[in-house]
Design a protein that fits this description.
Layout lengths: L4 E4 L3 H12 L4 E4 L7 H4 L5 E3 L6 E3 H14 L1
């Protein structure tokens, strides 16, 4: 299959790039070797992330899952 955009890395930056590509109607593939969500998901799943927009505190794993969900639904 041919894609307009291929993003290497499924961490926060890669997922954001994928979401923005999809908002522009570009066919997009995100490649991730480990867990989608990046380090938030596989290194810091229970560590709190503070002052992320819309959240006072949220666990890294949960935030990574929200990023992945947003990317899948784009």
């Amino acid at each position: 299959m041919v894609y307009d955009v291929i993003v290497v890395g499924g961490g926060p930056a890669g997922l954001t790039a994928g979401v923005y590509a999809r908002t522009r109607k570009l066919s997009t593939l995100i490649l991730e070797a480990q867990a989608v969500g990046g380090q938030l998901e596989w290194l810091y799943p229970t560590k709190s992330v503070y002052d992320y927009p819309s959240y006072i505190a949220i666990e890294g794993g949960e935030l990574g899952q929200l990023f992945a969900l947003h990317a899948r639904e784009s």
